[in-house]
Request: fold
Amino acid sequence: MYNFHKMKQDLFQAPDYYNLDELLTEEHKLIRNSARDWVKKSVSPIIEEYAQKAKFPDQLIKGLADIGAFGSYIPEEYGGAGLDHISYGLLMQEIERGDSGIRSTASVQSSLVMFPIWKYGSEDQKKKYLPKLASGEFMGCFGLTEPDHGSNPSDMITNFKDMGDHFLLNGAKLWISNSPFADIAIVWAKNEKGRIHGLIIERDMEGFSAPETHNKWSLRASSTGELIFNNVKVPKENLLPNKSGLGAPLGCLDSARYGISWGAIGAAMDCYDTALRYSKERIQFGKPIAGFQLQQKKLAEMITEITKAQLLAWRLGMLKNADKATSAQISMAKRNNVEMAIKIARESRQILGAMGITGDYSIMRHMMNLESVITYEGTHDIHLLITGLDITGLNAFK
Ligand code: TGC
Ligand code: FAD
Reply:
């Protein structure tokens, strides 16, 4: 008889079919392994329960900070870990192996909150916010999407007026990861000339609220909400001074999308590893189901796709380390790797039969999470159009 609760213990073994570990430095492996151990010890035992009750496990914040998941590539002088982009990718991979929602929190904090303060902020802003964000004392969120402007953020209506000694901010953002508990929000809004700027909004500013969005079937262990600005008085020193225009938020997205291209591999590896182990133990018609050709086809295709995705992410990381990765290359990797992961989650779910729909296994949770991952940070179709524009020179968005 099958032991129903057997898989509660995290038995994950990472697939590395092409010996890609040989491409990593000792430091990369150390960072990856400490994140892997932390996920086994701290995320796996609790994540299903938190996803079922749709609650963000905020006790994980300290551990995320300790493994360097908040601002791993931000210089040490600002509290970051000063690591390279392969390290950042490996961290995202390991965390998403546990859950996409927890990786979301790390992506947002690193690439969408710390990155813009580091790249576009003043020295005072960097000193004030970055060390606290790196340690997890402050949590942040990123407000670009609006109720009526998702794929097309350049038409946003959130705006601010210059009132002499302060700015007055009005508008609303929707689908904002971490907004319900964030201490600060990086908010993208238009000035009176219609130019997009980033503003640092603090939780206790009058006229600002961040209600939670409920009833999600995806990313249930991540807290998602709105940002509502009703005549919020924003001190002038809270404007990010060093970049404006849509390219500013899109530059942050490049960093987050890159991390997701690694994160999705983590979710796929977890589904594959679970399905492989289950298929070798599950007996039907007198033999393990792994011995049937149809199941082998699924498993063989999965490891092939994971291996291709690993190579894509690693190469992209090397390009990023050399400051040569283009936005279009990042789009290709985000799109390919998330689709790869969602397909593997669906196929793995089938290999587990009825057991695959239970919370005793991580697969269904990954599958539902990936529906958000394939939508946020630019939808699957938007990334295809970015590649289309890049190779043809013709814009098919408009
Ligand atoms: P377009 O005219 O193409 O570009 C406007 C300006 O931006 C520059 N640019 C970029 N800069 C840096 N990085 C990129 N990836 C860039 N892409 C474009 C561009 O050069 C131009 O600069 P300039 O100086 O000439 O003004 O803009 P467009 O309005 O035609 O839009 C292009 C499009 C559709 C690709 C863009 O709007 C887009 O990517 N839309 C998708 C929106 C999106 O991804 N939203 C994500 C919201 S955040 C989120 O989902 C967080 S989830 C967090 C989690 O939980 O993990
Ligand atoms: P729409 O833009 O309305 O798109 C709907 C459909 O139309 C999609 O299939 C899209 O591909 C297609 N489409 C749109 N335009 C075109 C076109 N030109 N050609 C062809 N097809 C097109 N945003 C933030 O700012 N911060 C966050 O922290 C954040 N976190 C999120 C967390 C979750 C769980 C989710 C689900 C979303 C989050 N988002 C966040 C929002 C996310 O970035 C948007 O949902 C995404 O950009 C798509 O926007 P939309 O949902 O409005 O879809």
Summary: Residues 1-7 have pLDDT under 50 and may be disordered. The chain has three domains: 5-135, 140-238, 247-392. The first strand starts at residue 140 and ends at 143. Residues 108, 141-145, 150-151, 175-177, 219, 224, 372, 375-377, 379, 381-382, 385, 397 surround flavin-adenine dinucleotide (ligand 2) (CB under 6 Å).
